[in-house]
Amino acid sequence: MGTLTDQVAIVTGSGRGIGREIALKLASEGASIVVNDLDEVPANETVAAIKAAGGKAVACAGSVTEDGFAERFVQTAVDEFGGVDIIINNAGYTWDTVIQKMTDEQWDAILDVHLKAPFKILRAAQPVIAGAAKAEAAEGAVRCRKVVNISSLAGVGGNAGQANYAAAKAGIIGLTKTMSKEWGRYNVTVNTVAFGLIKTRLTDAPAGNGTIEVEGKEIKVGVNPALISAMETMIPLGRAGTPEEAAGAVYLLCTPESNYISGQTLVCGGGFLM
What we know:
Blueprint: E1 8-11, H1 17-28, E2 32-35, H2 40-52, E3 56-59, H3 69-81, E4 86-89, H4 104-138, E5 145-152, H5 153-157, H6 163-182, E6 188-195, H7 201-204, E7 210-214, E8 217-221, H8 225-234, H9 243-252, E9 265-268
Parallel strand pairs: 1-2, 1-4, 2-3, 4-5, 5-6, 6-9
Antiparallel strand pairs: 7-8
Helix pairs in contact: 1-9, 3-4, 4-6
């Protein structure tokens, strides 16, 4: 049996990249997964991979910023698997420029996906989690639930050209600390993982040469290869992390061994601190 057997996890942005690896890791440890992605195809591919490995999963495609998505996401977990034990707020992207060139649309889009969406998902999950915790307490049972929000070193120390992203990722740390205080009475731990340089499709593309489509918008992504090399020389481990390693950091905060850790920010950055 895995460490997460009989638990139900909902993971935003889990059709690709780090989110996919988080979903696969939690499933490999026995959790039933509600997979989310903006697009149905990658979401279904992650579900298929989990099922092929003997796990349980269902897709809930759609934008985390859509009105009503949070309630639909949580309800999918309740309807398909009976409840919610683990919430991973992972979905997001970057839309960078210096502040004098940043539009209101850029600011709002990044704050919406990285901060408002997690808030709405946690708000939607509260009645489910509170109800389960009260029922368990009445029966003399104890069950520890987990929330892991995803931040970044940009949220810890700032990053030029990312006023929107850094503000959102700093905000998620504040939300984490607050929720750890509000939900402690439900025996829920709430923590943040702040990623450093992780190799994904958003960092592998040369700066300006790669794009992603988000709700009809083509957004340039990528990092200058020379900058990646320079960043790696500053990382004590000497390299960027892998999505699997990033998922491992999230998994640590979902295990029973972390049941007395809450309100914390774990930096997954190979030893690099801004």
